[in-house]
Amino acid sequence: MSVPNGQKEKPNKILQFGNEAIAHGAREAGCYFGVAYPGTPSTEILQIFHTFPSVMAKWSPNEKVAVEVGIGANLTGSRVLCTMKHVGLNVAMDPLMTFTYTGVVAGFVLVVADDPGMHSSQNEQDSRMLAKFMKVPVLDPANSQEAHDFTKMAFEFSEKYNTPVMMRETTRIAHARGIVQLGEWAEPVRGDNMKRDIQRFVMMPNFARARHTFAEERTLKLLDFSNNWEGNELNLQSKKIGIITAGVASNYVRELLPDASYLKVGMPWPFPVEKARKLAEHCERVLVVEELEPFMEEEALIAGIKVQGKEFFPREGELDLDTVGEGLHKAGLLDAVPPPNANEPVLARPPVLCAGCPHRGIYMALKKINADVYGDIGCYTLAALPPLESVHTCFCMGASIGNAVGAALNENNPKHHRVAIIGDSTFFHSGLTGLLDAVASNANMTVVIVDNSITAMTGGQQHPGSGKDLMGEIGPKIPIEDVVTGLGVKHLIVTDTYEYDKTLELLKEAVKHEGPSVLIARRPCALFPKKIGIDPYVILDDPCSGCGNCLRIGCPAISISGRKTDRGMHIPEITADACTGCTLCQQVCKDDAIFSIAEMKKSSGEEVEA
Amino acid sequence: MSDVVNVLIVGVGGQGVVLASNILCEVALRAGYDVKKSEVHGMSQRGGVVTSHVRFGEKVYSPLISRGQSDILLGFEAAEALRFAHEVKEGGLLLSSTQKIRPPRGPQKKKAKGLQYPENALDDAKKVCHGRVVPIEAEEIANELGNSRLTNTILLGAVSTGLDISDDIWTETIKAMVPPKTIELNLAAFARGKAVVEGAEA
Ligand SMILES: Cc1ncc(C[n+]2csc(CCOP(=O)(O)OP(=O)(O)O)c2C)c(N)n1
User: Last residue of some domain: A522, A553, A588?
Assistant: First the structure.
């Protein structure tokens, strides 16, 4: 049989992580258009999807735009995959709340990656609740194979029921590997022009009322479907105990209580009430084991089905075999599980700004002027940790500028400095409107845009300032300067963060300026797109006085050597194969004790002891 | 449940924990097992702790190993091996590189707990580990072989001694997963890692 659309030879069974499996599922379903804004743990889906032949994929500046772009592609008739992390869904809710009324022109699948346990997020919201709020069906896979299969089915359901479909995954699905049996690729469905239908797509009150009715009727059909779908797997065994469970949690239940009856839910909303009722009729007792919110528990209780859940299982953090085991023990169903480890804590190893990170210099300067720093989200948030400790807030993407505007207009101390610090990708994501507000209200504040020319925190994705997208160079590079001056900022300066004294001077100048000022702190990322080279420096024991200035910049290449000066001060040392030669430590060394190894060798012609 | 083999791999960002666990998973898959593995990406490139849970057996549900149930703990870094030493089950195996990676820190915060690097991490590990502890001078062996990036394969060679999977499958997988030019070196590294544990057996 011929293999369509450039699909490589079909592998038999391979190991894939959830995000890989979702990308493949979408391609097999004939999805043409992929759009997203990066966010852990969802980012890899689009990075993999865009490598397939015959598809289109792009990053948008934020999740709301991504959904709007996706809807636009869908209105022409394309199958669309739109992915984001859980907090991205908050940003994208506005178009989605109405898209659910209009319904889709072709399959539209929204993948939302929740992060229970907050491995790399600022909150641990449960997106199933937003699916219900949006009135869109939500699928909740338990492993890579289901991530693949459910994605494929999601496109089918989307078209059959005329609805966007949400695939909700969690970190332990997105980034866990399991065996997947792949299928064949369908021809991608790509639209040509808009399918005009004013009553359906112009959501003004009169037309929207009718579409709301449509959405409510659709919910009833979806409920009926959910009650009959085999992806909501009812397995009646023990009459004593039945468990309702979904997603990754179902794995822990099946491993710990193999003989229980269970309803393993693949579609938490609309919740398969009738299957739950059958389980309750069969079993003396029914428990609900689910991560985060008591979502299915409440759905069952509303339907009058007697269940217990969160009284035994935590509402916070990830579940695992131990927390589920503890809950089952509390419920009287399992022997006690071993208690958590109570050994002495071993040294802390918090994530740090990389050696050579361009963000370091600006934080050294911010620390020096002792400003209130309204922070934002990205690698640069790491400067909240010791020793820099010079970010003082972090809420959501873009919040820094609005926060600083509020503070500036409210504070009764004109001498005080307030600075918003925001990354380049975050600025494009949601900093523009905040800056507009700062200008419009003449707020006395400084915005530092840390421009490392990439979206670093999530692994180095392109953004509007990089002049590239997933598919290559399709648009111009958008200079941040143009945007800033276009928004009406009068005081704009650019600095290179590897030049500490100059950066400090320019920062002082910016904060002294009356009204809004912008300092662009520019220097490419040390990791992406390519790790910068090693150019090691060395600290000489003599003349080092052990003052610790170099240690205070928080560089992972600098640590305490164990040697001491005559006066008993700790002498630091530089790990040669980590040092990139950014020279910031040299610039703050008051003893002139730090030198480039290469230059010392050159000038003395001798071997230097590192 | 008891027929599932649990291997916990720990280290510091950038050391190659994820690559090693990928190879181990592939080996288990080729040996005909169901396989699951889980790790947290994200902070790994920024010097944080990296852990990877690998589980294989007839049928594996959970992608995470439960408390104190690791058959093998593989440490890429000594302090990290100590941090997770209690995860090894009775009769299990702790194999760890002796490499030490010290986190950066500012001038001493007086009495801050947990700041001191545990200089004798692997000796300390013996006190909390319920299984046998085998230190592996992986960095030194790799340097002897002439390529510091071989630590990965040396440690996998060590792990292979605790698993019931034939050398043929390991060899075939390594051949398929490392750059072609480095196959011979990697196979040598694998053998050296294996020999360390077998030599320590006595
Ligand atoms: C609404 C939302 N979308 C996505 C993310 C995930 N995220 C965290 S930081 C970040 C990017 C930061 O990039 P940038 O501002 O350029 O700073 P850098 O990490 O490069 O320093 C992203 C996408 C998020 N936290 N919130």
Answer: A522
